[in-house]
Write a structure and sequence with these properties.
14% strand, Rossmann fold, 250 residues, 6 helices, alpha/beta
Length: 250
């Protein structure tokens, strides 16, 4: 028996995916584009042509999410917006030690402050959205939102903050027609996690704790984000959905 795939229609919608040039963000951006959305993505390189993979079909903007000025500038150029996906992030900025206070602070700025500033900067645009279900913010949390990650304490602290930020934004903005939710991926193949691949001491404990016994893919994460931003999820706000192969319950 065949099973029909779930399909979303975002025709006429405008979506911003920060960090949409690679990894989970690229998977999310591609899924929104396939569903008919006008998709804006950001990356850290000067232009879309600086990437090895094809980013044509997107509106690309270079953005450092730790820069308040760049965030305000981008928000001011969007024109309109229906969905914001706060995906941009990094661990061990520049390969440095997050136990050093300056590096810890930079990691939190990238992974938490940037998402908060982007949400605030886009609030009026999202409140004006006329799409079914209303304007929506989807934040990217992590399994490190819930468990100790001594290798990257700044990243873990920031991702824990993402969950709390999601709760507060959701309650505060509900009266303005903006829903705010988050997705917490498990171990997903990306540039950030590539360093773990094939290194047993890093990879095996994660796989042993994941009941499904495999790495996730960006295509495993994207459908949950499209759902949370859709009319079908119009009674859902303030939630963090774990998409983790069972990691969080093992």
């Amino acid at each position: 028996m065949s099973q029909a795939g779930c399909r979303f229609d975002y025709s006429g919608s405008r979506v911003l995916v920060t960090g949409g040039s690679n990894g989970i963000g690229a998977g999310v951006a591609g899924a929104f584009r396939a569903a008919g959305a006008d998709v804006v993505i950001t990356g850290t390189r000067d232009s879309a042509g600086d990437y090895d993979h094809d980013l044509s079909g997107y509106e690309y903007h270079s953005l450092q999410v730790k820069s308040p000025e760049e965030i305000e500038d981008l928000a001011g150029r969007l024109g309109r917006l229906d969905v914001l996906v706060n995906n941009a992030g990094a661990s061990l900025p520049g390969g440095r030690n997050e136990w050093e206070p300056d590096v810890f602070e930079e990691s939190v700025a990238i992974n938490l402050f940037g998402a908060f500033r982007m949400s605030i900067a886009c609030k009026e645009l999202l409140a004006a959205s006329a799409i079914p279900g209303g304007g929506s913010v989807i934040n990217l949390a992590s399994m490190s939102s819930y468990i100790a990650v001594p290798m990257v304490p700044g990243y873990g602290a920031a991702k824990a903050g993402i969950v709390q930020m999601t709760l507060n934004l959701a309650v505060t903005w509900v009266g303005e027609g903006i829903r705010v939710n988050a997705v917490a991926p498990g171990l997903v193949e990306s540039n950030m996690t590539a360093v773990m691949k094939g290194i047993e001491a890093l990879e095996k404990p994660q796989m042993d704790r994941t009941p499904m016994g495999r790495w996730g893919l960006p295509s495993d994460i994207a459908p949950s984000i499209l759902f949370l931003a859709s009319e079908e999820a119009s009674f859902i706000t303030g939630q963090t959905l774990n998409v983790d192969g069972g990691y969080s319950v093992a």
